[in-house]
Description:
The protein is an all-alpha fold. The protein has helices spanning 6-16, 21-28, 32-39, 50-57, 61-66, 69-74, 79-103, 109-132. The chain has eight helices and no strands. Helix 2 packs across helix 3 (32-39) and helix 7 (79-103) runs antiparallel to helix 8 (109-132). The termini are close together. Residues 69-74 have low confidence and may be disordered.
Amino acid sequence: xxxxxxxxxxxxxxxxNGMTQAELADKMGVTDKAVxxxxxxxxxxxxxxxxxxxxxxxxxxxxxxEGKSAAKNSGKQDPKQLALLVMRAVALAMGVAVVALxxxxxxxxxxxxxxxxxxxxxxxxxxxxxxxx
Length: 133
């Protein structure tokens, strides 16, 4: 999976917020050519202007610098990543269920194998998906 550059993220946030380069430039007090250079990764905004940029996009400076905001602001999650997260949660839940039921003496061997099998299948799906990247 390709990591999004700072410039790509600025462009995405700007577009997600329905702004042109000129409108963002006006809010930032710079030229639209400066915004264009940021988005093409030819230059970066100076550090003193990062809080204002983050404020315009409704995110924290940390989110802006770490590139976490794209998914948050787009309102969409990557379905594949969400499915893999669910698989990990199911695997964990199956393991916890086996331990808890065994501890209270309410676990039949057949049920234990079924629960552990589901958990292992989920782990295998996650492992295979990671190999694809």
